[in-house]
Amino acid sequence: MGAQKIVELPWTGDSAPGGAPLIGVSLALIELAHRTAATRAEGFRNAQVLVAMGFLASALLAGWIEVVDRWTAAFPNQGFEALADTWRIVAGSLAAFAVSETVDNAFGAWLRDRLHDAGRVLITNAVSIPLDSLVFLAVAFGSLEFFAGQIEAKAAATVLLGLPLVLAIRAFLPPPEGRLAAA
């Protein structure tokens, strides 16, 4: 829903769909799943299950919005008519989520125990943020007009929200049994 409103980023003045900052946080948080198992392969599988669940949850939410939109509104002129190209945005979001989160997951799983969590979040997001932006904008808008703003919003959210969340949560996660030695 946030992607249907193009916003001006307060720190640069560039434009981006309003949902862009949440993707930076989402891409950062997937790194936590790698620590839920003793091996990189198991951590990757756990994270991929979360990616699939996120994909399913997004699809269910989009479907539910369609159901609610068909109900009779309690107040005149209340509805989703103002939301432009909802299904293109949904398709773009789902495609971008599946592609970028899977790439982020694979790269993050490989980097597990080879790099500190902070570096892992920053490096994997440096790869997955442009990929997510490219797929989303191409499918949802048929244009890369907001590419710079997407990158800026997602990168800022990664640094300001995602990275601190990952580090704070990791402080409370016990290491899995049989943890791999740092390389």
Annotation keywords:
183 residues; mainly alpha; two-stranded antiparallel ribbon
- Strand content is under 5%
What letter string, H or E per element, gives the SSE order?
EEHHHHH
Number of strands: 2
The radius of gyration over CA amounts to 18 Å
Number of helices: 5
**Largest beta sheet: what is the strand line-up?**
1-2
Number of domains: 1
Structural class, please? mainly alpha
Averaged pLDDT, please?
A: 84
End-to-end Cα distance, whole Å, is: 42 Å
Residue stretches low in confidence (pLDDT < 50, at least 5 long) are: none
**Main sheet attributes: strand count, strand direction, barrel closure:** 2 strands, antiparallel
Helix content: 55-70%
Q: Globular, elongated, flat, extended or rod-shaped: what is the shape?
A: globular
Oligomer: single chain
Question: Strands, helices and their partners?
Answer:
Blueprint (H helix, E strand, L loop, with lengths): L5 E3 L6 E3 L2 H14 L6 H31 L15 H26 L5 H24 L6 H24 L13
Antiparallel strand pairs: 1-2
